[in-house]
From TrEMBL:
Alphabetical UniProt keywords: Cell membrane, Membrane, Receptor, Transducer, Transmembrane, Transmembrane helix
Transmembrane region(s): 62-79, 91-113, 149-168, 188-214, 281-304, 310-335, 387-407
The protein, known as: Gustatory receptor
Stored InterPro entries: 7TM_chemorcpt
A single cellular component GO annotation: dendrite
Organism: Drosophila madeirensis
Membrane topology designation: Multi-pass membrane protein
Length: 426
């Protein structure tokens, strides 16, 4: 019965790994379709290769990206047109328009940085792929991705689709397709907008994969420590000489040295990923933050006007907030899993039995203290669960400011107040 259950778990692991790899290949193909990357996947060596130099496809892709950037800046404000009025009638409307313009500028900057750093992106992805193969070899497993990966991916996909359902209709209005030029601009804008969403979701996927790799390594080290108990507390039925015990302990020390090298590589790859996409992460946080504030402001105005669409605005703001929470939680998940070895009894198991093991443990723990993972974005803020509370308080404060500007009236009311103030002062 136990063998049957173990075989069933192994089959489930193979199926989950196959689905996970299928998801990763699908994301690669979508990135190629959206012209975000131009390199190809070598499945035999599991590496990303550059296209041949001087290729006509490469020139066409470069020209296409230039055209996309030129049209993107003019089309992006249409996405937030349903959140603000065409002609600002109050300081709140003007404030919302300025925020929408800032989002447009950051979106274009984010795309230019991503397109310019494509080679760096390929290098980091290749390091992730090489790290995946190295971990599978070191831990002697073929199934590394758990069911958690598929669940989180599907949850993020549902949230992304939910946001698209609300943001896509403004780009499909009939008046936007009045002539050929505007039609092409809108189509390119939608194309680039989908590419922007993909890059933003890639930030989430990178932190999720890093967390899964860290979790897998920590679990394997814990299993290694459990297997080492036979050295310190040998069973009565198994007799081991001192030489066998010392040899086995040295083998485990060699494994720990290899794990230390893997942890160092995971730290460097995660930091390189964060450094490469920190502008995109900043845009991700800022874009969702502004969208949440404007949607809640719109929800309150609709509620005061007894508009039934108030609940729609509230639902969309909730989706944006969960999008932001998911990114922050995945970053915090990677950080927490990277610190797990510090809580394992590495310096207690088999201590003072052999200097080789003690030296490996000391080196590994010192490395963990030196390479302490922190996911900071441009030095402005750190992505952890405490940041969620900071975002929530900022949303409430920002919303009160918008409401305060909104209920004081429009520009004419402000001018009237200014005139009354001047008369009373004289």
């Amino acid at each position: 019965m136990a063998k049957y259950s173990q075989q069933e778990r192994r089959n489930d692991g193979v199926e989950v790994e196959a689905w996970s790899r299928g998801i990763m290949v699908g994301l690669y193909r979508v990135a190629r379709l959206l012209s975000l990357i131009s390199f190809r996947l070598d499945r035999e060596e599991l590496q990303l290769r550059l296209p041949k130099s001087g290729s006509k496809n490469r020139i066409l892709e470069t020209v296409w990206r230039i055209l996309v950037v030129l049209t993107y800046a003019s089309v992006w404000p249409t996405l937030s047109a349903h959140l603000i009025t065409t002609q600002p009638q109050s300081y709140a409307d003007l404030f919302a328009s300025l925020q929408s313009t800032s989002v447009s500028i950051l979106a274009v900057i984010s795309f230019i940085i991503q397109a310019k750093g494509e080679n760096k992106f390929r290098t980091v992805l290749n390091r992730y792929l090489a790290l995946y193969r190295r971990i599978c070899t070191a831990t002697r497993v073929n199934q590394l991705f758990p069911m958690k990966f598929i669940v989180y991916f599907l949850l993020k996909l549902l949230l992304t689709i939910g946001g698209c359902v609300h943001e896509l209709p403004p780009l499909l209005q009939v008046e936007l397709f009045a002539d050929v030029g505007r039609t092409v601009a809108v189509i390119v804008g939608i194309y680039m907008w989908l590419g922007t969403l993909f890059v933003l979701d890639a930030c989430f996927m990178g932190f999720l994969i890093s967390g899964i790799l860290y979790e897998h390594m920590a679990s394997h080290i814990l299993l290694m420590l459990q297997r080492m108990q036979i050295i310190e507390f040998p069973d009565k039925g198994v007799r081991m000489s001192n030489y066998q015990r010392m040899r086995l302990l040295c083998d485990y020390a060699d494994e720990l040295d290899e794990y230390a090298a893997i942890y160092s590589e995971m730290y460097e790859v995660t930091i390189a990923f964060r450094r490469m996409l920190q502008w995109q992460i900043l845009f991700y946080v800022y874009y969702n933050f502004i969208s949440i504030c404007l949607m809640l402001y719109q929800c309150i105005l609709r509620y005061l006007n007894e508009d039934e669409k108030a609940l729609v605005s509230l639902a969309m703001a909730t989706i944006k907030f969960f999008n932001l929470i998911l990114l922050i939680m995945c970053a915090d998940y990677a950080v927490r899993e990277s610190q797990k070895p510090n809580r394992l009894p590495l310096d207690i198991v088999c201590t003072d039995m052999d200097q080789r093991w003690d030296k490996s443990v000391e080196t590994f723990l010192s490395q963990q203290q030196t390479q302490r993972l922190e996911i900071k974005v441009l030095g402005f803020f750190q992505l952890n669960n405490e940041f969620i509370l900071l975002i929530l308080s900022a949303i409430i404060s920002y919303l009160f400011i918008l409401i305060q500007f909104g209920i004081t009236g429009g520009f004419e009311a402000s001018d009237e107040v200014r005139k009354q103030f001047n008369i009373s002062s004289h």
